Amino acid sequence: MASRAKKKPKPGTEGADDLQVLHPELPLSVGGRDLVMREYGFIEGLRVRPIIEPMLKDMEALIGLTTQPTNDQVLDLMGNHIDEFQELLAVASDTDVAFVAGLNQTDGTRLADAWWKVNGPFYWRTAISRVAVARVQARAGKAGGATSTPPSSGTATESATSDATHAGS
Question: Which helix (H) or strand (E) covers residue 110, if one does?
């Protein structure tokens, strides 16, 4: 028996934002420039990993205090790593550190907010994952108990030292 074909979804419906979810980009105007804050690609993410590592460590510490950071906590995090954060902003917006450093309060905040919206979730999940792994490893270390003893030596089987075994016994 034939079945009725399903209607194709209209543009703007289910799945229409898949690319934005997979590789988010956020257009914005700051400092007289039209920019696009974008998520780092894989290789680019590996390149900025040493730059963001100190921030990740502080994110891990923050996770011990809260599951969702406040705006002030995020700003403090950024400010505590301002040199590294300027570079992260510049890379993700295809600008340079001098441009980022010259932004006024309003434009700088807008750029930082855009970075956190686009890239923050990835790094926050990374920090959460690290904390979770550390907790599991800590529990496993406590539950491990005493280490096992070394194996016993094997049974002597040399004919000079062992009794002969009779067939059929």
Answer: helix 105-118
